[in-house]
Amino acid sequence: MAGTIRKSARRVTAADVAEAAGVSRSAVSRAFTPGSYLDDGKRRAILRAAKRLGYRPNAMAAILQGGASDLVAIFAGEMPNDFDREVAAALVSGLNAIGKWPLVIGGDEATARRALANVLRYPLEAMILRSGSLDEGVAKSCAKLGVPVISSGRILHMPGVDNVCCRNRDGMADMGRLLIEGGRRRVAFVGGPETFWSAGERRLGLVTALHAAGLTLSADAMGAYTVQSGYDAAADLLAGPPFDALVCANDAMAIGALSLLRDRGIPVPEQIAVVGFDDIAMAAWPAFNLTTVRNPIDTLVETVTDLVQRRVETPTKPDETIAIDVSLVCRGTH
């Protein structure tokens, strides 16, 4: 009938299954509890009734009775570029593979803080922090609640926090040396926001390599780790002193800078070399063929998920900081 409001179906309960199978409520609970003793005949009857009725055990009820939640929160931030999105997707898959169920929190910092305040009401087994700009307040809140933290966007020197980070300085220093060995002497840099820990580390690595060769940065600009910000920063730099190499703190900005130079008819790498950091999938596209530093996502995810498992198994284990090796990927823009 038009205008009739249809009521949603009532969730099937353990009591419904017990009645259908002719057993007690506690027998239904034992049937879905691994290792619990139950007569085989009763177990089969319960499982048949559960299948027929569409019953699934209430996970939250099991948690309240001392079961594991298998819930792991991932604070992914705004994910402004492909690398962040690739990491978030890989973390979800990696956690699923070890039987954990991720709650992904995105958005700007204000939105994320509201979401974090709510998600911390759930019985999390761990919190993974992916934003390099988030302050220590979230980690402190987790510590008060006994929720372990794995930080992979920045190093947090706090009790109960495990850190996973690539060798940002080493990777960018290697890139600087590669450019110097190729004859580049006027090197410009496009960094990220000052609040991004990785941006500072990468700039320091490049400056260290230049200083070792008796050189300094010819020009310096700030981007936002996005393609558009790299495009805009390259335009600003072209208005200043000339340079023969443009080092970008991530691939997204390098792709933006590369696009700007091509729009201006400036040959790459003949006149200006352009390099990035991360080695996102797009960097290998023939249209870009970008020289970069590989920040291996597979290794990052394996390390993070291993730390989650070990921290859950041994909550009192010593805190760890693990550095992930990076490597140069030489393509056609240097």
UniProtKB/TrEMBL annotation:
<keyword id="KW-0238">DNA-binding</keyword>
<dbReference type="InterPro" id="IPR028082">
    <property type="entry name" value="Peripla_BP_I"/>
</dbReference>
<dbReference type="InterPro" id="IPR000843">
    <property type="entry name" value="HTH_LacI"/>
</dbReference>
<keyword id="KW-0805">Transcription regulation</keyword>
<dbReference type="InterPro" id="IPR046335">
    <property type="entry name" value="LacI/GalR-like_sensor"/>
</dbReference>
<dbReference type="Pfam" id="PF00356">
    <property type="entry name" value="LacI"/>
</dbReference>
<dbReference type="InterPro" id="IPR010982">
    <property type="entry name" value="Lambda_DNA-bd_dom_sf"/>
</dbReference>
<keyword id="KW-0804">Transcription</keyword>
<dbReference type="Pfam" id="PF13377">
    <property type="entry name" value="Peripla_BP_3"/>
</dbReference>
<protein>
    <submittedName>
        <fullName>Transcriptional regulator</fullName>
    </submittedName>
</protein>
<feature type="domain" description="HTH lacI-type">
    <location>
        <begin position="12"/>
        <end position="66"/>
    </location>
</feature>
